[in-house]
Amino acid sequence: MSTFKKQQNGIFPSVCPLDCPDQCGLLLHKTDGKITKVQGDPNHPVTKGNICNKVRNMPERIYDSKRLTTPLKRTGHKGSGQFEPITWDEAIESIASKWKNLIASEGTESILPYSFYGNMGILSAEGMDRRFFHRLGASRLDQTICSVAGSVGYKYTMGGSFGIDPEDTIHSKLIIFWGINAVSTNMHQVALAQKARKNGAKIVVIDVHKNRTGILADWFIPILPGTDSALALGLMNLLFEEGLADLEFLQEYSIGYQELREHVKQYDPHTVAAITGIPVDDLKELAALYGTVSPSFIRIGNGLQHHDNGGMAVRTIACLPAITGQWLVKGGGAIKGNSGYLAHNTAAVQRPDLLENKETRVINMNQIGSALLDLKPPISSMFVYNCNPAVVAPEGNKVRKGLEREDLFIVVHDLFLTETASYADIVLPATSSFENTDFYTSYWHKYTQIQEPVIEPYGESKSNPDVFRLLAEAMGFQDDVFKDSDEEMIEQAFHYPANSYIEDIDLQTLKENQFVKAKNTPLFPGKLPTPSGKIELYSKKMEEDGYPALPTYVPLPADGDHPFLFVPGPNHNFLNSTFSNNDKHIQLEKTPQLHINSRDAAELNIENGEMVRIWNKRGECLLQASIGENVLSGVVVTQGLWADLPGTKQLVNVLTPDRVADMGGGATFFSGRISIEKIQ
Ligand SMILES: Nc1nc2c(c(=O)[nH]1)N[C@H]1C(S)=C(S)[C@@H](COP(=O)(O)OP(=O)(O)OC[C@H]3O[C@@H](n4cnc5c(=O)[nH]c(N)nc54)[C@H](O)[C@@H]3O)O[C@H]1N2
Ligand SMILES: Nc1nc2c(c(=O)[nH]1)N[C@H]1C(S)=C(S)[C@@H](COP(=O)(O)OP(=O)(O)OC[C@H]3O[C@@H](n4cnc5c(=O)[nH]c(N)nc54)[C@H](O)[C@@H]3O)O[C@H]1N2
Ligand code: SF4
Ligand SMILES: [Mo]
């Protein structure tokens, strides 16, 4: 299909493949067959030619000398990183014969795919791979590591991943970044907010860490981790009390506001101040601001839902715009995620019907460590792609121990020899997204975009769909579904009458127009996909599912008797663990730091820049202390999923719990506790 690939020189359209809401339009500059420059596409209606440093530096990643060029077979012990090159035939043949034996002796569920969104392309992340593992009957992976708790919580209130069009937020007069480090993780929402600010908008940031986003705020409100639902409930109480609630809107478009109004009386300012650490006066001021300034927009982040109570936190915050009737105002409302607008035909793409045994076991990806160590019957083979669990999954020491099992046959498909790949029996080289055909749908803005290959595959690398086509053949799967081309799968994806927002989109429109927007019908007035069709302040469905029907603050559970809550988030110059192996990105981040309040540091006799040991029953890390006022006392923060290098102890996930959140089996990365001591 692509003619771009054959042209040695030119500028070609592309899309950023990384797991980032912005999903920027890109232009790839190609000289003598190689990408020499990555630029933002100025014609993209939302991202407008601006891209982050990470992706500007993408050519260095694509042509990194460390990039894999051939399949490899392990020669040393697990984790040694010793491998020798083999051919694709040998690699596929050894995987297929191992799997055939395993299926005969232990059954199909002994095999587990482990993947996430290292490449956001739909075909790369949830296409031919799903068909293959469904047909195989492998154990199923519950992909819970990122945003599921909050998505489930939001859905109880709003019916699905539907918020406002971010392009409308230039009209907002009050913008609240709530649990999102948007400067690093959603830079174009910040650009839109800055535009709104030029027209008089105020930017409020509610976070546990005064990071790049907090610094930019007109008003930064520090909050104790895991207490956001108490704040939201306290605001609701004040809004009702002060007569700032829009009763007409509530009557027309929501259910349960009378019950809610009674229920929130218990969240009086003094109670809420004690829970959240936010002074009473600030609570009152925030309620007055939210109750009087319109349009107001809340950007709900992922950070606040990486907690045991994260689903309920998002469920609760999602009620706020209804209280003030903001959904009817252009630029008013909220965004948690907008993936609902571009929802495609997943059944056609992934073919769950191929899975014969509908009871096939499901494994929560957050608990991969215990699953590898404890599950009976055991997981005997794991196929990892688009993901680096040795670094990104919680209970990291358990994960390592699991990966070290001699009787676990591991295959890793990646562009690099990641920490996870160092435990593999077979490593397969992956193409970059610029070498593939795929399509992308943003989970923040409303545009979808096709990627056609711009360069030849690097070395012998292959795309995810092609690897699964080869494996299907080697396993003897004759089904036609494995013969579909990438383009045919894109056609199938957009044939989806159930989603009227995409009724005008098909392969042809994608090829003819660089960026295609989901139909932009506003949410209100309209019927939401909740059981009642309205915003559910009171949710019968929640009650049926075992939750309180009204939004409720549930404190974080105990986690040992360690004094500090530990919030290890992502950083500015890596994307999760991606780029943590690149010198330029490492230099920009310098070294992993532990942000600690000066009062706490003084008590522990720690000076700025000193190395500290942090630990709990799960593990320990050695990090550099950064002392100041950008976290509250009792809270410590690190940023970045750093590489596991010899001589370092900087793998923060050895400290994080693998408990699952209140909803959707979500991750609780930010609800762990630790102790700190100065290294003598
Ligand atoms: N540069 C960069 N961009 C990225 C990524 C990256 O690694 N680097 N990762 C991508 C991915 S996969 C995702 S999911 C998104 C994540 O991006 P975000 O949605 O921004 O989520 P986080 O950065 O995890 O956390 C956001 C903020 O929540 C704060 N926080 C933690 N706990 C609480 C709490 O209890 N209450 C409140 N109010 N705040 C809290 C943290 O201090 C942090 O500033 O970013 C994407 N974009
Ligand atoms: N402590 C802590 N842990 C966290 C988080 C946190 O905030 N704090 N964030 C969590 C979140 S929100 C997320 S989403 C996860 C993300 O965790 P991961 O999904 O593991 O993300 P990355 O670390 O970016 O790893 C993606 C891998 O996919 C590979 N890859 C890229 N493109 C392709 C391709 O086309 N084919 C194949 N086969 N491989 C490809 C990349 O080279 C990279 O090694 O991490 C989670 N872990
Ligand atoms: S990582 Fe995000 S901001 Fe950077 S280029 Fe990709 S989509 Fe744009
Ligand atoms: Mo994520």
TrEMBL record:
Q: Which InterPro entries match?
A: Asp_de-COase-like_dom_sf (IPR009010), MoPterin_dinucl-bd_dom (IPR006657), Mopterin_OxRdtase (IPR006656), Mopterin_OxRdtase_4Fe-4S_dom (IPR006963), Mopterin_OxRdtase_prok_CS (IPR006655), Prok_Mopterin_Oxidored (IPR050612), YoaE_C (IPR037920)
- The superkingdom of the source organism is Bacteria
Under CDD domains, the record lists: MopB_3 (cd02766), MopB_CT_3 (cd02786)
Family annotation (Pfam families): Molybdop_Fe4S4 (PF04879), Molybdopterin (PF00384), Molydop_binding (PF01568)
PROSITE patterns, from UniProt? 4FE4S_MOW_BIS_MGD (PS51669), MOLYBDOPTERIN_PROK_2 (PS00490)
Q: Which UniProt keywords apply?
A: Iron, Iron-sulfur, Metal-binding, Molybdenum, Oxidoreductase
* Protein name from the UniProt record: Molybdopterin oxidoreductase family protein
Q: Would the keyword RNA-binding be found if you checked this record's keyword annotation?
A: no
**Which residues does the UniProt record annotate as the domain 4Fe-4S Mo/W bis-MGD-type?**
9-66
Q: Which family does it belong to?
A: Belongs to the prokaryotic molybdopterin-containing oxidoreductase family.
